[in-house]
Amino acid sequence: MANLVAELNSLDFSVYIGGPLQAAVQAQNAASMAQVNFIQSVGFEDDPASTAALPLPKKLRYVDFEYNKSVPNPHFGKDKQTLLDEGFTDAQATTIVLDKNNKFLENNVIIKVPFLTTLTLPALRIEEVIIDFNAKLTSTETSNVSDEFAASAELGINYKVVNFKASASYKRTSNSGSTVEKTYNMGVHVKAVNDEIPAGLDRVLTMLEDSIASVNG
User: Which of 49, 68, 82, 128 maximizes the CB count within 10 A of its CB?
Assistant: First the structure.
């Protein structure tokens, strides 16, 4: 009879189970390095003053947004004397007083924003790895038995002499054996999510958001 326990013990589970887990670890490492490369290549740019002889650190890449902003005219409705008292010249005060419809002023505003704060950073994380491994062992035993029997007889009479011959033979053959059929099935289920950015990187992005500046054109 086949020893099925020994057959199971002969399986190299370090390959069947450890292989997918090792692949998951390598994938997580590759995802982390992809985030680092993304920040370096997209969030920074070469300093124009950098040369081969005197290389300079890369500069943070900014993106400019420009728009017109309407703001209330702080001098609308004031009389000429008030404007003169505030330091305007006679010509400037006269122009402001005559402009009766200028309740709002149009300011050209330019906002410089760190490019990284406008992007979704890749932060892929493997949340779970489920490995389904099924081993099916089927043991089959066979036994064959065959019997062979042969007999012969001969009678001869020759003038008062009687001759009788008889023979018989018996043969029994038996053989047995066993076979083990092995069937393996394995399924790997991987669930990955876009994780929150690390705490340190989150603080850096918060500092970059604080550096957003607007300039009136």
Answer: 82
For 165-195, the pLDDT digits (tens) are 656 666 667 666 667 677 777 788 888 888 7
Q: Which residue has the tokens 């292989």?
A: 19
Look at residues 138, 186, 146, 193 and name the one whose alpha carbon lies nearest to residue 170. Answer: 146
pTM, to two decimals: 0.54
Token match 């990187």: residue? 201
Counting every residue written for the chain, the total comes to 217
Residue 153 has pLDDT above 80, yes or no: no
**At residue 136, what is the residue type?**
K
* Count of CB atoms situated within 10 Å of the CB of 200: 8
Q: How far apart are the first and last CA of the chain?
A: 92
Q: Which helix (H) or strand (E) holds 84?
A: helix 80-85
